[in-house]
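Workshop exercise sheet. Pairs work together: one partner reads the sequence aloud, the other fills in the structure field after running the prediction. Swap roles for the next sheet.
Pair: D.N. / O.F.
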Amino acid sequence: FHPPTIPIVSNLTGTVATVEQLTSPGYWTRLIREPVNFHAGATTLTEHDVTTYLELGPDAVLSALTDQPGIPLLRRNQPETHTIVTALATAHTQGVTVDWNTVLPKTPTIALPTYPFQRRRYWLDRADGSADVGAAGLGAASHPLLGATVELAETATVVLTGKLSRHSHPWLADHSVMGTVLLPGTAFVELALWAGEQTGCTLLEDLTLEAPLVIPDTGAVALQVFADTPDGDGRRALTIHSRPADGDDHPWTRHASGTLASSSEPAQTSTLGTAWPPPGATPIDVSGFYEDLAAAGYHYGPVFQGLRAVWQDGDDLYADVHLPDEESANGYTAHPALLDAVMHALAQAAVSTGEMGLPFAWTGVRLHAVGATQVRVRITPTGQHTFALTIVDPADDLVATIEEVATRAIDPAQLGTPDSSRDPLYQLEWVEIPTPTTTATDDASEPEIVTLRAEGEGPHDPEHVHALTEQALTLIQNNPDTHLVILTHHAIATTPDDPIHDLPAATTWGLLRTAQNEHPDHITLIDTDQPHNKDLIPAALATGEPQLAIRNNTLHVPRLVPTTSERQAPVLDPDGTVLITGGTGTLGALVARHLITRHGARNLLLTSRRGPDAPGAHDLAAELTQLGANVTITACDTTDPDALADLLDGVRLTAVIHAAGILDDATITALTPQQLHTVLRPKVDAAWNLHRLTQDHDLAAFILFSSAAGTLGNPGQANYAAANTYLDALAHHRHTNNLPATSIAWGLWDSASGMGENLGDADLARLRRTGISPLSVDEGLALFDAAIGLGRPHVVPLRIDTAALSGQAGLGMVPAPLRGLVRAPRRRAASAAEAASSAAAWRERLAGRAEPEQRRLLLDLVRTNIAQVLGHASGGTIDADRGLLDLGFDSLTAVQLRNQLGAATGLRLPTTLVFDHPTAAALAEYLRAELAPAEADGHAALMAELSRLEASVSGVLPAPEARGEVVLRLQAIMRRLGGGNGSAEPGAVDAAVLESASDEEIFEFIDSEL
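Structure field:
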């Protein structure tokens, strides 16, 4: 106890407490045992001119007992942050001085948009499935869950389609089981009943649910309901399927199957009677029922909380169920939330026994009325887990009868996402592709073939890595306009057991992947298993693939595929020590906590450049110690082998996690050797030292925190890509030498992890447009556990937005490893003929047009591409005379714009295009000078036509029997134009041509000579 610094009015005496009282254990004992004298205390506060009361407690209890303004700081069942900030705001309005700088610390500066307000409407209209689909030859389904219907020709099969999402049908989010939002089973019943309505079948004879349908957090699922061809008795087989709405390459999942039939039974009458509740039935308390369900993992929001009362009479249950007022039943035969709440009468008994189940099989469902919002129901057991239901409205008229519904417990393992086949944990597979039988026939100059390999003793040592990677950088920078074919030998692993013989050359692959993305079609990477075998290089180039491996005279290309292996995390020795480099960083700290709480680590050695002087290091050590671990934080330069050896002397390691690294981004043309080595050093040198100095330790895990930048070749990060590709290669090297190793090539993490904290909104938007979405902290840690349990040397945790990726595929902008994840035309390297054809098409389009029209066409092209790169809605918003840097361009987006304009026009554009021509108008004028030089209109048109003809001839060679005729006609044209200038002399005709020509062709040739 110590003397108070703030006066305290005692709730024991009702007066200001003395120092002696507050520091006496006896006083506090009395305070616990004796009544609270609140009135006297409030009176004393009033006498001291206290006019505002702040109640510190778990709920608002005392505030209501005084006439003075009372402000409760916390409220029961309300978020703490909301109530605390509300309390402070209320105090502020009552004249209390609040230190807002502490409450709301200074936020980072946010860059304002670089263009003026566009005054456009961005509100999202709620999709209700009522869109006009007639133009597509479909019928409107006229149902809230469905959009269209079509009857297939010749079979009379009826197909109903729809799209479900939390945005279009927000009430679905109120149905969550074990933390996963599921389409309720009653929605399948509703879909089946509506299909029966459309096909004249009034009886749902049976329906069995086969797999849950998960409603994803983002995106939508496509839905199909099939009512098959009727049999001789008019019965139709029914199936219900779904797949991700953007997943054209995903298989359909069948969720339910059943039978629709016609029913000729006479209309039934109710058997519940008008007396309600039923006489003699015993009421069952359902207060707190939905809270109990939530505790059991069944979270039902307001729309699904329709159970109002339950009674029991013998084995029968009776229930009163209402659809909430805010939810409309219009358009439904029986609203799924209402029917689901009917089943809650069964759940109220099961939840207390732990035998909670969900309905999965329905038999004999007949609908007698539609659009009900309030119903009464009788539930009669027919077996251990089966029940019959009679449902009526408040007037005792039948709504529905169900002969039998069966329930069963749901397996949480089934509650994967609908995109479960697209697990965010990937592995890189090298897929064999057919070897082309023909090679390119372009007239362009032959590509320059360069071999990269480490030389000298100890080829894997870091100094060789630095030297060879700098050599690759210099090669790219000195040959900006040359098509380079770069060969390596066993620098990549095409299988987990494929040995890597050259770690320095492996590192160059990361740098060169970035160069490929910044300069498409300039670089082809080929790794061979025979150092001097170049026989397959022409065939490899003919594939148009930017990255290939030659193994056993076959071609292989890299593709990311979801991991499929069994997952079992390694067991860490609790007496051993886990070393984490970069341990005081945000990600290192996250993993340290996770190792303690999830993997039972008890001894942690965290290193960083500043060690205990790093920001937050002291608090981190205290927190980890509180969790039960022995923690040492030390400064160590792990790139120095002697310093690292001293650190590890006497330490018994059970695991190593290398999470250190730094960034120093630049495009490859601007990247300096210093930037290259600065980023390589903490990744490459430190990892090699860790590898060499821990080989004698009995390690359960050796984990390298790599980046997907190396696998994909992130533009603007050539040095970072190279450093992380080295880690991937080192893990393969260890794996083939029977040493534990896992390189986790992380994708983007959200800002809470610290991995994405340096990215602004513009950076995140650009990444989203490329198809890369951030991982949450919980996702990342779960993927960490999965990755280290796979036993593979290289895995890639990466969240991919397939819709955005498909858009990039349409532009030909998808890195090679991602091409297996989208269905889009494969982008292949542009041949000389194709480039000439694109340029010729533009020259032909511009020929004969006045200069203002030429400028308008090219300015539209430039604006459209600028809008695509910056993510603007349309090119019309781009000011033609405003600087591109002012619009938001940087070195990366400048590269992207140049690449897109080059692909569109067929021109080989300079790397400094955007900086040399810094406005849309200047770019358009530059393109006009290249595509429509200032010459006479007739001459320009003729040159454009000749370019088109040349491209056609280069691309399609005539058959031998027709070649003579083509040559003769071309030579005749040349003589008419200039009397043979620039061609062979009249008599210098190829004898082989004349020998193959027909009589008519020879006479035509003679006439042309005369």
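Discussion prompt: Confidence is low (pLDDT under 50) at residues 416-422, 824-834, 980-988. What would you look at next?
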